[in-house]
Design goal:
The chain is of the alpha/beta class. It folds into two domains: 216 residues, 3-Layer(aba) Sandwich (Rossmann fold); 169 residues, P-loop containing nucleotide triphosphate hydrolases (Rossmann fold), CATH 3.40.50. 44% of the residues lie in helices and 19% in strands. It has a seven-stranded parallel β-sheet with strand order 3-4-2-5-6-1-9, with helices on both faces. Helix 1 crosses helix 2, helix 12 packs antiparallel against helix 13 and helix 14 crosses helix 15. The longest helix is centred in the middle third of the chain and has 19 residues.
Amino acid sequence: MQIYVRTKPYEHQLTAFNEAAPHRDFALLMEQGTGKTLVAIGLMGLRSQSYGVKRILVVAPLSVIPFWKTELSRFANFTHMVVDLTGKKEEERRAQLKAANGLVIALINYESSWRFYKGLVDWNAEMIVCDESQKIKRYKSKQSKAMHYLGDNAIFKLIMTGTPVTQSPMDIWSQYRFLKPKIFGDNFFRFRRRFAVMGGWQNKQIVSYRHVEELATRAHAIAYRVTKSDALTLPPQVDEELKIPLSSSGQRLYTKLKEEFAILLDSGAVVTVPIVLTQLLRLQQITGGFIKTNEGDIEEVDNTKLNELKQLLEDLPQGKKVVIFCRFVPEILAIAEMARKLQRKVITFYGATKDRGAKIKTFQEDPTVTIFLAQVQTGSLGITLTAADTMIFYSTTFGYADYEQARARVHRVGQTATSVTYIHLLAKDTIDEDILAALREKRDVAEYIVDRLKRGTTQKYI
């Protein structure tokens, strides 16, 4: 694997590569944060250099596509061309694929995969990577059917997920129908008859499961499974970014406000720090999806980030504890409502919260309470949330100290997990990215923006 990537892999990544290499079809069932993308890149290099593969298709959630582009640029130790097919019309996609030469790695999101199905069939990828393959667990969905048919014509296939089963063992069939139909057959109902017990109304409800050990044995015949607790060589903290494009209406509102701010900066008027921070705050509210109207009401202006969080929670095991930090109370209220609809028990923790000690104790000790939803200003100090090893930043304040203190709620004495994962939800090409960049430089965002303002370069960051 070392010859195909520009970094030394961890021992579990090397094991995953070696187990996958002899198989044309393989499943990397590696928990989030264990580095399965690096393994996939290594396998791409192997397939290209040893088997002459020239056309590789990566299908992933839209928010993960930028991550693939970054990781390929950083780690692929072989000549390749990346073609990003997201957000394009069919004619443009076809032209991109036709013009590409050499080893071509095409990236597309699941929603577009079935809409551009004919174009992908014509391109005839020799290797297909299905990232976050739980996205095709519903065998009737259009994207699942498209992936099944595309997979039938590929020479090499790879599925990648840390949570192949999110709701029931039935989730497995569709993913393996894409990967290797021989494992569980090409008929879902035969699979269900073998592994599920039907009952309830008209005998159409699954009441229990059977032959579960057989199911696991079959699935793992072409799979490598590792969790963060298994991967003892992992660093203690793993950071991930999910970049989500705003909706067209949200983008228009964001662009309008950004242009008004740029005009203000160019006007020659005295622009004080409070004015700058107020404008930045309004931009950040838009990326979170909620703004306060002139009448004082809360209006939802964009739901893309909230929907991304919903999908993320759906993909995590139902019993996994997660801490979510937000800056604004409307975000907390909307997320809490969404999580409850997913049948997740939630604790909210913000300025108006009472009995805070009891709420923290409940989250730490009650296995049925799986989400701790906190406002950064309220929940970043003096509390312990080590029952969770995953933290999601929906939004943050502008203070570096707040950010670091929030991270420390799960990464502290009492944390028994080998590593802690931090997931940042960022509206693509917005202030969200700039805030995180400033925080990673260990700078207070307000100070950072003011310094740039003094040098006349602030507009770049809005």
